Amino acid sequence: MARVTKSATQRRNEILDMAEKLFSEKGYDKTSTTDITKGLGIAQGTLYYHFDSKENVAAEVVNRQLQTLHMHFRDVLLRTDLNGYEKLAWIFIYELDDPLHHIEIFSYLRNDHNALLRQMVYVQTICQFSPIVIDMILQGNQEKIFHVKNPTLVAEFFLSTIHHWVDSSLFNWTKDEKIARIVALQSTFEHLFGLKEGQLSLSVMRSIVAEKM
């Protein structure tokens, strides 16, 4: 039987696919590199040829999952036909409606044995998404819609809150519970972005997104 030769990219993706499956089923803490290699029928040396450690595998799993969301965010936040306020409204409604099913993608983070992965998602979310949210804030400032003195800090705080306290993939909130948290944040974010009272009400944001998206 002829030996099947796979490219480095194919092999890396196979390892990541198996790791993601096992992290979801068993949790990171209870998954060993041996579990991953046995699941694929490959040698330990093959895994270590592509990844330095199990932690490195986990970091790549998280990065790969976030990339799809990051591309979608960039597609929306780089649209020239939307102002900064309209983009901000989209982010809030995106978190509620979950068009890319990111809640399900990251539901495995609720597993008690995935604490390290939760930390990785948190850090990579801030690192990957902050620059495009900062650009959104700068745009809103230039348009005289926002009045933000420190865009970097506001972007980081905004992402930390909207993608963790509100995010059902971590806390398993119901839709009503998510809405309650977004409503609770309304006045805080209106103040942070320098908006008028009521501009971040759920009904207003839904109307904007329905019209523009």
Record the SSE blueprint:
Blueprint: H1 8-25, H2 33-40, H3 44-50, H4 54-77, H5 84-97, H6 102-105, H7 115-142, H8 151-165, H9 168-171, H10 175-193, H11 202-212
GO molecular function, one term: DNA binding
Keywords: DNA-binding, Repressor
InterPro entries: DNA-bd_HTH_TetR-type_CS (IPR023772), Homeodomain-like_sf (IPR009057), HTH-type_Tx_Regulator (IPR050624), HTH_TetR (IPR001647), TetR/AcrR_C (IPR049149)
* Strand percentage: under 5%
Low-confidence stretches: none
Mean pLDDT: 91
Number of helices: 11
Write the CATH fold name. Answer: Tetracycline Repressor, domain 2
Radius of gyration: 20 Å
Q: In CATH terms, what is the architecture?
A: Orthogonal Bundle
Report the CATH superfamily.
Answer: Tetracycline Repressor, domain 2
Oligomer: single chain
Proportion in helices:
over 70%
How many distinct folded domains?
1
- Report the top-level CATH class: Mainly Alpha
Distance between the termini: 54 Å
Order of helices and strands: HHHHHHHHHHH
Q: How many beta strands in the DSSP annotation?
A: 0
What is the molecular shape? elongated
The biggest sheet, with number of strands, parallel, antiparallel or mixed sense and barrel status, is: none
> Which structural category fits the helices and strands?
mainly alpha
How would you describe the overall organization of this protein?
It is a single chain. The protein has 213 residues and is mainly α. It has a single domain (54-212), classed as Tetracycline Repressor, domain 2 (Orthogonal Bundle), CATH 1.10.357.10. It is 71% helix and 0% strand. Helix 5 runs antiparallel to helix 7, helix 5 crosses helix 11 and helix 8 (151-165) runs antiparallel to helix 10 (175-193). The longest helix has 28 residues, at 115-142. The model has no long low-confidence stretch (mean pLDDT 91). InterPro entries: DNA-bd_HTH_TetR-type_CS (IPR023772), Homeodomain-like_sf (IPR009057), HTH-type_Tx_Regulator (IPR050624), HTH_TetR (IPR001647), TetR/AcrR_C (IPR049149). Keywords: DNA-binding, Repressor. This is TetR family transcriptional regulator. It comes from Lysinibacillus alkalisoli.
